[in-house]
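FORM 12-B: Structure-to-Sequence Request
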């Protein structure tokens, strides 16, 4: 793993992030923001001028992975917005990094924007905004590749709860002629850059949940006894656990490739798709090994599965896979024709 000039490695943040997130158990979303902001985790990649640590994106990966502690707080979105807003809206970025304010992102659909004097009026509907009811600010896509930061309490903003994740409910956001300051409209090109960074952090969050599910499955298979033997005595279960371990390491390797060297958008897409595919398989496999126990609130495997499916949908895994398929076909067609 790459290190900074100070000798810091991304792995150094893993244990710290895990302890800080574990200490958030039982706190409200606001209290979690204040706690994590005080621990310095919300500004890992944000600049020092807004109170961040100004570290490379690789240092946010172990923090996102530690969110497998099933936070009820949009950690991934906070990490992204603290860095994204530091230049255009430094006051908002500083509040987000410190935990004094909370923000989230609506990941699907887009709004339209119309200038109106020194203001901008937004209309439309955006979806899959985690914890939108508990935050101060909401980022929505505008048009093809711009974005706008909207106060959740602004007139014309309506929130409708949706989604599978009970701990971090998603919301559909309806914007009915919502007026915002002109500086809150971020320029074209903002959204693709945000999505690129989000893919890696989503992959890390899925990896954290998948790793937690696999650890629970391994422990259950080793300690649960049936017909005089541990479940792991069954060779089929041992083989399934081995396959899931291989899938987990594949996610880890794909994330590493997406962050270091001359990684392109293709590597980031591949990291997210690997996590989305293997993460679901690992969590479903762990659920199967636990049987009915895996659906109880005391065994949080089903909660991890819900979180993974939500992250998969927020990143539009099916659409991304379809686009990569079209790209692959377009690239091999000329070669096939030449060979013929």
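FORM 12-B RESPONSE
SEQUENCE OUT:
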């Amino acid at each position: 793993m790459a290190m900074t000039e100070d000798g810091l490695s991304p792995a150094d943040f893993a244990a710290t992030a895990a302890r800080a997130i574990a200490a958030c158990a039982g706190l409200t979303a606001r209290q979690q923001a204040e706690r994590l902001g005080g621990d310095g985790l919300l500004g890992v990649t944000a600049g020092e001028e807004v109170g961040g640590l100004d570290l490379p994106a690789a240092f946010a990966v172990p923090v996102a992975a530690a969110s497998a502690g099933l936070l009820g707080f949009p950690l991934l979105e906070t990490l992204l917005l603290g860095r994204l807003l530091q230049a255009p809206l430094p006051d908002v970025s500083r509040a987000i990094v410190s935990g004094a304010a909370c923000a989230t992102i609506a990941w699907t659909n887009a709004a339209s924007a119309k200038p109106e004097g020194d203001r901008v009026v937004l209309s439309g509907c955006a979806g899959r905004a985690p914890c939108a009811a508990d935050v101060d600010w909401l980022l929505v896509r505008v048009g093809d590749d711009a974005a706008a930061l909207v106060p959740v309490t602004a007139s014309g903003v309506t929130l409708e709860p949706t989604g599978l994740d009970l701990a971090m409910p998603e919301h559909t956001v309806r914007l009915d002629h919502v007026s915002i300051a002109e500086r809150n409209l971020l320029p074209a090109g903002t959204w693709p850059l945000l999505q690129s960074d989000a893919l890696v952090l989503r992959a890390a969050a899925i990896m954290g949940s998948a790793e937690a599910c696999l650890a629970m499955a391994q422990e259950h298979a080793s300690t649960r006894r049936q017909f005089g033997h541990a479940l792991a005595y069954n060779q089929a279960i041992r083989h399934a656990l081995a396959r899931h371990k291989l899938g987990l390491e594949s996610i880890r390797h794909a994330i590493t490739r997406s962050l270091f060297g001359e990684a392109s958008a293709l590597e980031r897409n591949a990291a997210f798709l690997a996590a989305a595919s293997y993460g679901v398989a690992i969590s479903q496999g762990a659920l199967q090994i636990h049987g009915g126990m895996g659906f109880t609130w005391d065994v949080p495997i089903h909660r991890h599965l819900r979180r993974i499916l939500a992250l998969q949908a927020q990143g539009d895994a099916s659409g991304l896979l379809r686009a990569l398929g079209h790209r692959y076909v377009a690239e091999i067609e000329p070669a096939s024709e030449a060979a013929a």
